[in-house]
Amino acid sequence: MRPSGTKAKLRHAVRLFRAYTLLIAGAIFLLFPLVWLVSSALKPDGMEFVYPPKLVPDPIMWENFPRAFSAQPLLQFARNSAIIAVFTTIGSVISSSLVGYGFARLRFRGRDFLFNVLVATMILPEIVTLIPTFLLFRAIGWNNTFLPLIVPFFFGGGPFKVFLMRQFFLTLPVELEDAARIDGAGTLTIWLRIMAPLALPAEAAVAIFSFIGAWNEFLRPLVYLAAKDLWTFAVGLKFFIHEFYANWNLIMAAALVMMLPVAILFLIAQRYFVQGVAATGLSGR
Amino acid sequence: MSIIVEKTSARTRQSIRWRKKLRDDLRGYLVISPWLIGFVLFTAGPMIASAYLSFTKYDVFSPPRWAGLANFARMVDDRLFYVALRNTAEYAVMAVPIQLISALFFAVLLNQKVRGIGIFRTLFYLPSVTPGVANAALWMFLLNPQFGVVNALLKAAGLPTSRFLTSIDTVRPTMAMLSLWYIGTNMVVFLAALQGVPDELYEAAEMDGATSVRKFVHITLPMISPSILFNFIIGLIGSFQVFGFVYIATEGGPANASLMYVLYIYRHAFENFRMGYASALAWVLFVIVLVFTMIQFSLSKRWVYYEGGTEAS
Amino acid sequence: MNMQGKSKLTRREILKLLGITAGGAVLSSCGPAPTPTEKSVEPTAMPPTEAPASTEAPAPTDAPSAEMVTLSLWFGEYGDDIMQEAFDAYEDQFGVHIDWLNVPEFWVKIPAAAAAGELPDVIIMGDTDIPTFAVKNVLLPLNEYADSVDLSDFVQSAIAHSSWAGELYGMPFECGPSMWVYNKGLVDEAGLEDPWELAKKGEWTQAVFDETIKVLSKGEGDDAQWGTFEPAKSIDIQAPFLKGFGGDRFNEDFTECTLNSEGCVAGYTYILQQKWDGYAADPSDAVAGHTGILPLFNAGKVGFVYFPRGLWPALNHDLDLGLAPPYVFTVAGEAYTRHGVNIFSVNQETEYPQEGWDFLYFFATEGNDILVKNQSGTPNRYAALDSPLWLDSLKVEGWEDPEAWKMGFNATLPTIAPPGQPEINDLAQAAYDSAYLKEQTVQEAFDEVVEQANQILAEQIG
Questions:
Q1: Nearest CA to CA, how far is A190 from chain C (Å)?
Q2: What is the pLDDT along chain A (285 residues), one digit of tens a residue?
Q3: CB within 8 Å: C32 and A91
Q4: E strands along C308-440, which residues?
Q5: Distance from B119 to chain C by nearest Cα, in Å?
Q6: Are residues B46 and B75 located together in one domain of the fold?
Q7: Prior bond to A59 cis, omega within 30?
Q8: Which residue ranges make up each domain of chain C?
């Protein structure tokens, strides 16, 4: 099936060339603004907006990074964001996978209606429920803690993720489940030992989205967290901007620092997109 | 065996079915209980509260006062309501297709098994992680009509320049283009879906002599159609909720050309202290988007392919 | 797929999942407990002046002993340490502790706290906020407290901004008139006489100003420079221009919006004409950020800008800078400028009204001195304009003539923002844009505004 020989090798090389060309072109296009972000971050004070715009700063101020860190407790903010993001992710992945499976594969009365309700909850803009939700959490004594930002994500992770998992589960073949049921496996077992592993690409996606969502979120941490030592990075960055409105280089440096953990996380997590295919082990249909 | 089956009355069979249904229901509800409980505890209350508020005058500093349909009557005469709605709809109509097509294109690109694809995936995803504030500031800088890099490059290439965010006609299309930099989520969803398409299908098609285009249209697209629906719905909802960028970069201008709906809600809620009217606005948006979404869902039965058959709604 | 012994394993795994979940919940409730004082709430504010870049912010001070009265306070964007110095001084003198916090996005946190009944004892207010909050009964009326002190030495415009309908609602602790800061180098280069020298001779008129910026506006592309810049698009900041042409934003008792009057239209036309002619840069000619024009000015591209004094550290001090008196309009025959004011007010529901007032007055006097000393603000009392504290702080930079500042202080008229102004402002901005882009004439655009604005005024005040 796999032709060999020079002709095939040539075709392979052309394909590879085309692939890399497109990838590099795409990368240049998408990274264009980020290149300027980095460039601004490394510029000396006052030179950020010089005209004509200079791409390569002169001198390159690597010290802008330590400067940003000493200006505000960025490490503390990062720690807080990390705590919130990690627990949010754990809760989201587990609960969204379970609930998504339920909506996808189980039959029960009211299922479709409830799913529509779930989708509907995504439509209302956050700002109108901000104050009622704030009052709710305050009534149970959770304001000025991380709880309002974490606990709700253990209950499905949010409609977006359940929706995603449900769509994904619907693409998996029923035969595996049927086989397992015949073997006498319970629903929970099927989910945990068969479906969830198969849905690893989607779960990896959910993990990434959860982490990033929690990491970048601004409005709710602003409202729920008061004390400065509880602030997340996103809130801290906004404050940073107020304090250092004139130092765009430092602001950009702080923004870059904020992006770094997520980039690393993504680099690690994207491996799991490949795993899904292998795990499916689909032969017949 | 068959004797017993024949002797089983219709009623018994019916009650067996009924009990099985009950068991299924119970099991289903148990499995989705995390969401259901969370919904009841954290979501339903505030949503109902905001629905109630839309019938009141509420300036936050004093208790809400019942106002009946006054907010909605006001909306009918509110010129800016129509402006905001039109702006947002226009933006969504442009942004969603752009996002879908590009996300799919990039995902296909990133689905290739070449060396270093992981790095490329990360690079492509990176822009989506940029904090909203930094992103807005960056684009204001790059798109500056006179000093920006983009116009400088266009001029150098002999192409016409644009006023981008500073002109009434170009601000919304520009924003639609800018949404491209945040399609990381859509890209990742497509990528995960593409990974789930079994290789055997492609191999079988190749043996039949199918071209790349045919393979794409007849295998890839149907197999990932659930994720297309997902990205479409999410993109739609997201486009109607665009806020951060306009808040920072354009402030709704120039001349309200980029006054997006949620920005308008925000102004009434937090600047004019008209929480009641803001809630009413939000719920009108809710109804509009909900109706549209439900239509899309029912239409989707025609073109979305689910492996499991007709389980989906 | 191993199905043997499935139930046992599944149970263990369920327990594992529950364990993670519970652990998550427990650990996530880690975070400092809310401060033990009764009324500690979070603070924020948006004063127009900014502090110099601060170093590491200190943690909030520890909770005081049980007997000490504590006031909770909101502010934002001053250097934490400078404010701390003032708060400490207050505590030393009055034995009252200040529990403060400094947070961005005032406008989101205030409603949330208000809805929860959790506004702090003392809140910072900007110069357009008092009427709105007063009308909503959020602020403590202060006339009964103020009767015992003499407020006549305070900048009267600032006091006016701290009052509404004859009642005082806050004490201005810092204020600064809008002054022209100009790039002396550019002016000299163009062969023009120095504006401040002219002002001292009484010859700094609008005609001269118009001519100056015309001469300074030249060049294209890399060499482009502008004489001045567009004033911020807020009607209270545009107000001096409008007043200079005989127009006013509202009528005497704020029941009517008059933005479409002859004077206002003339004023707006004046501003827009500068832009159309290319004499005035605008924020889209500059780049992102709250500072707008600052980068261009620092790059030596703009002749005249106005800044509140708190922004001084952000100026490029390598430039040869000058300070000239505020907008001078000969049409109406008088000089008008406005003040940016920062005010502290007391929450109507506070348990400590007297302590609140004491703090307000203290901060408006000694607090102001501390701010001035630390180059974080301008004086708010006429007498303070001659104080060594102020004069010494001016000498640090050296290019500001105290007499120029005095002129500014004396030319200030209040530009009070009635309740509903934010909404009217949004309308006015859109109209301004529309007129600039020539989608409508100035008159048409603002006629539309006035129609809706009158409705808004009626709702808010009535």
A1: 10
A2: 555 678 888 888 888 888 899 999 999 999 999 998 888 888 877 666 665 667 787 778 888 888 888 877 888 888 999 999 999 999 999 999 999 999 998 888 899 999 999 999 988 888 888 889 988 998 888 888 899 999 999 998 889 999 989 988 888 888 888 888 888 778 888 888 888 888 888 888 889 889 988 998 888 888 888 777 888 888 888 777 766 666 778 888 888 888 988 888 888 887 776 554 333 433 322
A3: no
A4: 321-324, 339-346
A5: 31
A6: no
A7: yes
A8: 70-175+340-406, 179-338+415-461
Residues of chain B contacting C21 with CB distance shorter than 8 Å: none
Tell me whether strands C339-346 and C122-126 are parallel, antiparallel or unpaired: antiparallel
Residue type, A249: N
Give yes or no for a contact between A208 and A190, defined as CB atoms under 8 angstroms apart.
no
**Alpha helices (H) along B57-78:** 70-77
Are residue A53 and residue A109 in the same domain, yes or no?
no
Counting the structural domains of chain B, the total is: 2
- A97 and A204 fall within a common domain: yes
Please indicate whether the domains covering C70-175+340-406 and C179-338+415-461 agree at the CATH topology level: yes
Task: Determine, yes or no, domain membership for A263.
Answer: no
Could you tell me if residue B58 is inside a domain? no
Three-class SS of residue A240?
helix
Note whether A168 contacts B227, CB cutoff 8 Å.
Answer: yes
Whether chain C has a CB inside 8 Å of the CB on A247: the answer is: yes
Cis peptide leading into C64, omega within 30 of 0? no
Residues B41 and B103 in one domain: no
pTM of the model: 0.85
Query: Which chain A residues are within 8 Å of C314, Cβ to Cβ?
Result: 245-246
**Residue C284, CA atoms < 13 Å, CB-side half-sphere:** 18
Q: Are residues C447 and C260 in contact, defined by beta-carbon separation less than 8 angstroms? A: yes
Residues of C in contact with A233 (CB under 8 A): none
**By the 8 A CB rule, do C390 and C109 touch?**
no
Amino acid at C453: A
A83 contacts C103? CB cut-off 8 A: no
CB atoms C136 and B59 under 8 Å: yes
Q: Domain range spanning residue B182?
A: 70-303
**Would the ipTM clear 0.90, i.e. be above it?**
no
Question: How many other C-beta atoms can be found within 10 angstroms of the C-beta atom of residue C238?
Answer: 25
Verify whether the Cβ–Cβ distance B142 to A36 is below 8 Å.
yes
CA neighbours closer than 13 Å in the CB half-sphere of residue C429: 21
In a domain, B134, yes or no: yes
Q: In a mutagenesis test of the A interface, which of C14, C28, C75, C312 is the best target, namely the one with the most A β-carbons within 10 Å?
A: C28
| CATH class name, domain C179-338+415-461 | alpha beta
Inspect the interface and report whether the beta carbons of C104 and A185 lie closer than 8 Å: no
